Amino acid sequence: MPSAKRRKSRRLRAPLRRSQRIAASLATFVVLLALWAAVTETGMVDPLFLPSPSAVAQALVDQATQGVLWSDIGTSVYRITVGYLIAVVMAVPLGVMMGVSEWVLSAIEPLMDFIRYMPVVAFVPLTIIWAGTDDLQKFLIIWMGTFFQLVLLVCDAVMQVPQNLIDFGETLGMKKSRIIMRIVFPSSLPRIWDALRVSLGWAWTWLVVAELVAATSGLGYRITVSQRYFATDVIIGYVVVLGILGLFFDQVMRAIGKRAFKRWEARP
């Protein structure tokens, strides 16, 4: 008969050690990089369409040496930080209120559902007319792309709080505001944090869209400029940088969530 250790390893969602998780993640990137190098370094694909990893790395080094890469990263990170925080500060309170009040839910949810199906890209020309091409326009695009989705995700997280916890607070004679702040919000916070992680990815997408269409700086702007000169090595390099930045911020939020909500992570 198989040992207990082997039976445990065959379980669905069996936990891995930290070293195993890191090894599996690195292996995926190594395999993809090797395939990319094999296809490009052997001349199977024209470098104009897909430059080699070494060419992309050299392009990034050139951009970094000139200071352009760091300037573009700083500009985009600033825009994403401000625009995303505005959306979060507005969405979380409204989502919580929707999750605890049927009146607010009935009044606001249809509007959120109606607007969130409108393509944000279609509003880019309007935002340029409304706010010009400065940072305010970028903030507006990020807000439009994340706020309406995030409100509904926060509302869903709050609605998953067990009703018996709320009933317990009412039995103790707690005021509604105190029940929300001491019971509902803390109980739903791990799920709200997950919603924030997901919506941050959307925020990066919409920032790049805004910078591709109307900008004079930033990662998206540099991709547009490179397209005009068929500098595909710079384009792919900047796309890789965007992926690295997104992964970095996602992992930071994941680590913060695991530390802050460790008791919710307990496994049976």
UniProtKB/TrEMBL annotation:
Main location: membrane
UniProt-annotated location(s): Cell membrane
Membrane-protein topology: Multi-pass membrane protein
Domain ABC transmembrane type-1: residue ranges: 73-253
Transmembrane parts of this sequence: 82-105, 114-133, 139-159, 201-223, 229-249
Pfam families: BPD_transp_1
GO cellular component: plasma membrane
GO term, biological process aspect, one: transmembrane transport
Keyword list, A-Z: Cell membrane, Membrane, Transmembrane, Transmembrane helix, Transport
Classification via InterPro entries: MetI-like, MetI-like_sf
Protein family: Belongs to the binding-protein-dependent transport system permease family.
Protein name as it appears in the record: Nitrate transport permease nrtB
Organism classification: Bacteria, Bacillati, Actinomycetota, Actinomycetes, Bifidobacteriales
